[in-house]
## 1
Amino acid sequence: MKNTSCPHVSFDFGHRFLPPVYILVFIIGLVANGWGLKSLLHKWKKLKLINVFVLNLGLADILYLLTLPFLVVYYFMGSKWIFGDAFCKITRFCFNLNLYGSIGFLTCISVYRYLSIVHPVRVMGRITLTHSVAISITVWLLVSIQSLPDMFYTKTFGNSSGKCYDTTSKRHVEDYLKYSLGWTITGFCIPFLITLCCYGHVIVVLCRKNTIDKILKQRSLKLLFILILLFSVCYIPLHVFKNLNLLSRVLSKQRICHGWFNGVYIAHQISRGLVCLNSALNPLVYLHGNEDIPAQLRRLLQQARQMFNRLFLSNSGRVPVAEITDEV
């Protein structure tokens, strides 16, 4: 339907929904990633090939988490960006590095698992630590090159303070939609298909061969579950609703109005909250890839339980008899 003007889309939902999510992700993500990276670096000399990708995954998460406090301030101030145009672009660039870097390194982990399970004889001794480091550098370069055009789009609106767009302003939204669709195909769809193909083949091999160690089977299936969780919860909704939201902005600019515009905007804001959860969920890969971390977690939980029991017993011993009688 074509009108002279489209109904106004309410932006209140994003202002209420995103700040609490960012605060929660910042706290959990910083603790979990810091702990995971510390564990990996503690045994640097014994670092496995796959852990090089896990290490880079953690670095991408930390890079993004450090920008979240500025976004929280931005939303608490009613979507007024006070940190300047350059830092707005840097903040959005760090988000893209985290997002597509995470997808890239998760894809590398999937390919490595595929080769080690399906073609163990062919790759044994041929893939070295140097190869893993070189592949990681390549991923960073490709993601940076892919994200660089985003920095040339207008990100702020207003003279001294205003919006800090995660995409771009209304003026360039048509071009950005084309860029976003290409970015979605190369940065998300192709790595996702590679991951699905790798683990689809791995599952077939694991089901057919009885000679494969049961522990290896369990670990591979757990990693598959983690990757499906990450892609389904964090990555798929964002790319679907981001492009639909851009399309709604293009149609609205052309005075073509539809009732689903407001719903797509809300879904896009929810997907933005979900995608930042990847920085808190990625440490699940640490738990899977490093046998020491679950043991450390169990020890910490046991120590916390013992401390709680001692505290409870000591407090119970100091309760006056009169108080106990009154409570009864």
## 2
Amino acid sequence: MRSTTELRAEILAAARAEFARYGLAGARIDRIAKAAKASKERLYAHFGDKETLFGEVALADAAEFFQSVTMAPEDVAEYAAGVYDLASRHPEHLRMLTWARLEGFTLPEPDRDGHPIPATVLAAIRAAQADGRVDPSWKPEDLIVLLFGVGLAWAHLPDAVTGAADEPTVAHRRTLVIEAARRIIAAPGA
């Protein structure tokens, strides 16, 4: 017999797969319940309705996504590579965040151990700028958007363009992400 915590976790895992594939409108509670080996009644007892369940999955994915990548002032370019790695290994997170944005869900600011991640990332960029590792002419808020864009570049291309993502291809793309990020952040005269 599963505990309430185990059942809830299984429902959330099944819901993640369903919502990542079909979005809120296309997802079906009966498929989620079947995948979680739970009744629809138990699912509704835990989450109330499909929108609430979607919101919980989106929040969990956003938190996991943003907590998985760390910005270090000594290697800002590696942050873009971390975003690439995460999008490559867990595309369901990016799909959930995209569905949430399309559905108009407002996600709270992500944090790590009570510290807002955006503020931590921006502070790391400012420290790297102060140390001469990053071009100080960039506004940190703009630079983080560009680094995310570089890290997510392949995730936003149609599958027909990206091709098979075998290990050599993934490694090559990661190298390109780091090089592009380094060129973006390069301090004048570096």
## 3
Amino acid sequence: MARWQPGTRERLQATALELFRTQGYDDTTVAQIAAAAAVTERTFFRHFTDKREVLFAGQVDFVAVFVDPIEQAPADTPPFDLVTRALDSASGFFPEDHRPWSRTRQTIISTNAALAERELGKLAALKVRLADALRDRGVAEPAATMAAETTVTVFHLSFAQWIADGEARPFATIVHERLDALTNLVRPAR
């Protein structure tokens, strides 16, 4: 039986990540990534605009996993339930076999100021898109912005825990733990 072989895009991402990890992001060139992945630089540029995009590719899909469930929810769905739907959907974006890649990716991003700024920009863009989707559903301000901010905060805290050394729980479990903590903060058990 044949083993699954990653496509060129995935091979380039895996190769780049390993080179970033071993020799540093700044010291890794597109030429080195292409050569190590056994493709031409031209092939690299068919898949990515630059080496930074290896770490940030998939932004449209990333945003869609949060926004689509909000847009597809029944009309009478309360805002907090929309937040939960978005986070449940996002949990599927982080399968267990991607945890090691995500850990390495985050380490690389955290050690480079420009990449860290790009990551924050990605989360800010997600907040804007979520708030727009909530307003489009008739969620008034400031609730739409607070719900969008809450969604991204819960996601960010959950992701940080999911990639922490020694963490083995599924992403969805961590998300619901954070949502429970938020619920208890807003309405403490009596």
